[in-house]
Amino acid sequence: MNSGYCKKKPPLLGLRFWQGTGLITILAIAALYLIFLPHTVQTGDTGELVANAYLLQVAHPPGYPLWLWIQHLATHLIPVGTVFWRASLLNAMFSVAVLSILFSLLRKRPFVAMTFTVTLGLSRTYWLYSELPDVFMLNNLLVTLLLFNYFKGGPNYRTPLILAIFALALTNHHTAIFLLPVVIETIISEKNLRKSIFSICLAFSLFCAAYLSIFLMDTEGLNSWGNINTPGKLLRHMLRMDYGTFKLTATPTAGSFALSLRFLGADLFKDGWPVLLLMLIGIFKRSYALVINRRQLALLSSLLLLILVFFWLANLQPEGFRGDVLERFFILPTVMLTFFLAINISKASIHFENKSFLVRLAIVLLIAGSFTQKLASYHKSHDFSKNTVIEDYAINQLRMIPKNKQAILFDGTDTGYYSMRYAQLILQGKNLTIVTTPGLIFGPWYLEKIKKFYPDFTEPNQELLKNRPPDISTDLIMPNLKNFSIHFTKGFNDSKNFHITYLALGRRITKGKGVSFEPDSFKLLSFRSQPSFSDYSLRYEAIKEVYSEYAYYHLAQGMDNYRNDRLVAAKLSFLDALKIVPYCTPAVENLCSFHSKFDRERKNCLDHLEQLMLWQYQYF
């Protein structure tokens, strides 16, 4: 036995002082979250989830009933702030609770605890989804609560509590299924058979009750997913059969297991270096050794199952907007790995509080350096307090549609589609516009709902669709041009069979041929903020993709002028596109073509284009 650890030196400032410092660190992280919380709708699924929670409507598969009910209460009971801010506040509280549990696990080693909480709490993806109200932080909290009770819970209530939390976690997010090794080990270790049976029955009852509560929601609203009025339809929704039970998305794309693991590893290493450094110090000092008992093995098995099985089945490449979707699933393995390392290090003989002043100073500097580095790296991208880009976009798109007329507005991105739905339901109330996507509108349940709310809508001929794939032009646009104003945010360019009127944002489709432009539509635009254009970034940003759509009017007008030999007007249009969207590469490319081959300005223009292509993600 090492006598150096038998008789410890009393810490100069005391254990409670450093524990208090650790709690202040958590409060500082919580304050950061609070200061940067969004007040308006943001990217991804957040628009749908918050709107559906507020109105108690069914979200996309698998439904997330627990999250919807909790956020429904929060958005109605919190007396201050916008609906979106209230949902974000509760989400941040989930995140801080995870950090508090982690700190509690390591409270006897506050230096280590502070390192772990700062490393996790300010890591890029964890911090991002601590502010954006999505299902992931509640998932992390439930998993962390389960694991805390698994390792530290009392014997009397341990088994029923673990199984109850497991059941509730499954009603929030299905990735909790990968905790099965932990749950099975809990049941096997329980010596009281009656308690095991009771715990299983309790878990099953909670799971069923949560999902059956979907029948209490507004299942018939147009923006409520599916038409869930029978147990069979509820089961189908729960199993994600609209997407594919064992697929991450409904897209036919294939993922890359190796690339996903590479990105996960890079993410862990980039933000997790303080914890790795601390553990290396422990190993070097021979005060830490990885010793795995049965419970730790169960947790490690769950972690490996999550990483290997989930990312094997995930049908998304970790690049571009698909990478943006996939990276949010990096948070759970990060939390589980952090918990696993915390459990191991809590049993080690690392007591930095009893070391010399210089050692303690070095650890304090490590923690402060980590805090400062992460704050400097991410505070701009994670500050949503005044970010209104997505909400401005949604409101501006809806303003392009004629008032008092039925309309169909097609959008192809989650951010655009869900933000416009949020603007419709929460900010503007009911209106006559059907906001949808080209893929969703051909769903049988969705067509049924549209016909119910909009009797003038002409459905596609289902008999014809049995023999061929659906075509949006012939099956939806042509039959509905008479009774609806048809709009696309982008992507529809068939000017040979339809007349396309380019608006300040989006385009209107009418009968005829060719293109025209409506400059008066710019009077309807309003901006409260814009993305940061100061830095190039190869990382996809949904905000920049949405904002890029403000350039399409000028790009289309520039190309139309160029084709009709109005070269001066064409050049001015491309310059207008760049004034609004500085990363608009098609505008730069077209401007370069106006210079002669050996012109110095042409070389400068091409150099700028090359720089944009190399250092900026391409949104066009």
Structure summarized in a few sentences:
With 620 residues, the chain is mainly alpha-helical. Helix content is 58%, strand content 4%. α4 (83-105) packs antiparallel against α5 (110-121), α7 packs antiparallel against α8 (158-172) and α17 (389-399) packs across α18 (414-428).
Task: Based on the model shown, name its key terms.
mainly alpha; disordered N terminus; 620 residues; single chain
Structure description:
By secondary structure, the chain is mostly helical. The longest helix has 28 residues. It is 58% helix and 4% strand. Helix 3 packs across helix 4 and helix 4 crosses helix 6. Strand 4 and strand 5 form a beta hairpin.
Rg over CA atoms: 27 Å
Strand content: under 5%
Q: Mean pLDDT, rounded to whole units?
A: 89
Distance between the termini: 66 Å
Helix content: 55-70%
The count of DSSP E runs of length 2 or more, i.e. the number of strands, is 6
Topology diagram in text:
Elements: H1 15-36, H2 46-55, H3 65-77, H4 83-105, H5 110-121, H6 124-131, H7 136-152, H8 158-172, H9 180-189, H10 193-212, H11 231-238, H12 257-284, H13 294-313, H14 320-327, H15 331-346, H16 357-378, H17 389-399, E1 407-410, H18 414-428, E2 433-436, H19 444-453, H20 462-465, H21 472-480, E3 485-488, E4 499-502, E5 507-510, E6 515-517, H22 542-547, H23 552-563, H24 567-580, H25 585-592, H26 600-615
Helix pairs in contact: 1-4, 1-5, 2-3, 2-18, 3-4, 4-5, 4-6, 4-7, 5-12, 5-15, 5-16, 7-8, 7-15, 8-10, 9-13, 13-15, 17-18, 23-24, 24-25, 25-26
